[in-house]
Write a structure and sequence with these properties.
The complex is a heterodimer of chains A (about 260) and B (about 280). Chain A is mostly helical. Helices cover about 75% and strands about 0% of the residues of chain A. Chain A has helices spanning about 1-25, 45-50, 50-85, 90-105, 105-120, 125-150, 155-160, 165-195, 200-205, 210-220, 225-250. Classes of the chains: A mainly alpha (about 260), B mainly alpha (about 280). Chains A and B meet through helix 1, helix 3, helix 4, helix 5 and helix 6 of A and helix 1, helix 3, helix 4, helix 5 and helix 7 of B.
Chain lengths: ~260, ~280
């Protein structure tokens, strides 16, 4: 029975990892038609490094991912502190709105943001992309931070106010340090969500500002290309690194 | 105290205004647009009416919705079937190894889904690993068509969304009080009865959460069908993309989007209702 269970788990892990593993392996294959293994080579990585449009799209993606993750963390953390610390009218409504934003599929958000930007006559490009990405990252940050804060003893803040700390001091010196691992994990999650997004970006960016997933999308639709294998391997390595750091941050016990 | 109030008001306002501007208002705009018309040159015309909704009743578009819902449902069922036993075994695994295995489930969840769809594509390609393996095993003589089929799209969907099913299932199963299952065993319940009457009802919130997390994105992931299925399998996601970006019939696209939102709200409220039922039952 135990063997059967482990076997089943191995099978599912195989399903999840085999396609990626094959892709990574073939990114080092010198053959252009990725059927036969010829020899180890870094050619595809080299041709990636010389593809200017691809490098530009990568830089754009990293920029949007960093900025939208930071913006989402700023707004989301403050919002989480507000939801944790205060009882106010419309608190339930705000939480409901966050939940709906979290659950609404990309395509619905993409359509509504496109309509908003067009109605407001905003030119599609960097800014629309930044605002949209921040919006879909926001609930993830708020909920991650809020759930960490809810695990803490409220008396700590009361003690600080009793000792004469102002609200801002109490939040800056007690609440924010306690929430820090969750904020960082939220940042990492937002960063990858932004890098990963195809659907929303497809709708809200203009022709002048191309991002990596859209670039990959146009490459992939044309067929299997060895350069894409190399790019996939690199992105896979990035996600691996990010997940491991996020797991480490979230599992670290509060002092 | 006054300072506190300013701070309190501003941080609450910041989040509220952001969500109002970028979530609430845009969706209201879509709702308004869905009732408008379009003139010959493609501009939005202010002729309010239900025309766009009536147009959606055309069998062609009904088929798109039916096909999308069917595929999303099938994806959900397959993910649940594959994911439940997996999450169950994972929860029983040696505690020392569990975090590592859990991280292994999370990694694909965080990996670019387009890249992962592409990985499936190259696996299923005519000269890909799958065909070559089948030929080497002597099961087939020449490459069979795996790409651009309905099953390719289903495999891609399951591949992308399976982690979304496993994670909530795992957290529900892990929290399960094993003593209840043992008590059922002591009272003489067999393996299946224990599962059916104890384990399954107690992990229901996880099942429902997982199903929602798979079902909702499954309706919108247009690129999976694009990359793996060609354009034959028109899904709601592809349809919306076409209406908004290619045909530029916004009012019509908006109506389709509103129908989709309506369906999703229906599912979400069913989820909220079932959670309420569940906690009410637990309190008895």
């Amino acid at each position: 029975m135990e063997k059967l269970k482990s076997g089943y788990m191995a099978l599912i892990f195989g399903f999840l990892y085999l396609p990626m593993a094959v892709l990574v392996l073939y990114s080092f294959n010198s053959s252009k038609y990725s059927i036969r293994w010829e020899a180890f080579s870094l050619d595809w990585y080299r041709s990636l490094a010389t593809d200017d449009t691809l490098l530009e799209a990568s830089m754009n993606s990293l920029l949007v991912a960093c900025l939208s993750a930071s913006l989402a963390c700023a707004v989301g953390t403050l919002g989480a502190v507000g939801l944790y610390r205060y009882r106010f009218k419309g608190r339930k409504l705000l939480q409901g709105l966050l939940f709906v934003t979290l659950m609404s599929p990309d395509i619905v958000m993409a359509v509504s943001l496109l309509v908003l930007f067009i109605a407001m006559h905003v030119k599609l490009g960097f800014w629309t992309l930044l605002l949209s990405h921040t919006t879909f990252c926001l609930p993830f940050v708020t909920i991650t931070v809020l759930s960490r804060l809810e695990g803490f003893d409220r008396h700590l803040i009361e003690a600080a106010s009793d000792l004469g700390a102002s609200e801002w001091q109490a939040i800056r010196q007690i609440v924010l340090p306690l929430a820090m691992p969750a904020i960082m994990a939220g940042w990492l999650l937002s960063f990858t969500l932004s890098l990963d997004d195809v659907v929303v970006s497809f709708f809200v960016t203009g022709p002048e500002f191309e991002v990596l997933p859209l670039k990959i999308y146009s490459m992939v639709r044309l067929g299997v290309k060895p350069e894409v294998n190399a790019l996939a391997a690199l992105l896979f390595a990035v996600s691996l690194g990010v997940v491991i750091s996020a797991q480490y941050l979230l599992q670290r016990k509060p002092q | 105290m006054k300072q506190t109030n300013v701070f309190k008001t501003s941080i609450i306002l910041l989040l509220s205004v952001w969500l109002a501007v970028f979530v609430l208002v845009p969706n209201l705009l879509v709702l308004v647009a869905s009732f408008l018309g379009r003139d010959e040159s493609g501009f939005i015309k202010f002729t309010p009416g239900f025309d766009n909704y009536l147009r959606l009743l055309d069998p062609i578009y009904l088929r798109v919705f039916a096909h999308s819902l069917g595929l999303a449902l099938l994806t959900t069922v397959v993910c649940l079937g594959l994911g439940y036993p997996f999450a169950y075994f994972l929860a029983q695994f040696r505690p020392s190894l569990r975090p590592v295995l859990l991280t292994l489930v999370i990694v694909p969840f965080w990996t670019n889904s387009l890249i992962r769809t592409y990985a499936i594509r190259s696996l299923l390609a005519a000269k890909g690993l799958m065909n070559n393996t089948l030929i080497a095993l002597g099961l087939i003589d020449e490459p069979i068509r795996l790409l651009y089929t309905g099953s390719a799209v289903l495999i891609g969907m399951v591949y992308i969304l399976l982690p979304f099913m496993i994670l909530p299932l795992y957290s529900a199963i892990e929290k399960l009080d094993r003593r209840l299952v043992e008590a059922a065993a002591d009272l003489g319940a067999g393996r299946w009865r224990r599962f059916w009457h104890v384990t399954l009802p107690l992990t229901l919130p996880g099942i429902i959460a997982g199903c929602l997390l798979v079902f909702m994105p499954a309706l919108g992931l247009f690129f999976i069908a694009d990359v793996l299925g060609g354009s034959r399998d028109l899904l709601v996601g592809n349809f919306l993309k076409d209406q908004f970006l290619d045909a530029r019939d916004w009012p019509f696209g908006a109506a389709a989007s509103i129908v989709l939102i309506g369906l999703l709200l229906l599912f979400l409220s069913a989820y909220a209702y079932s959670l309420k039922q569940f906690s009410a039952e637990e309190n008895h």
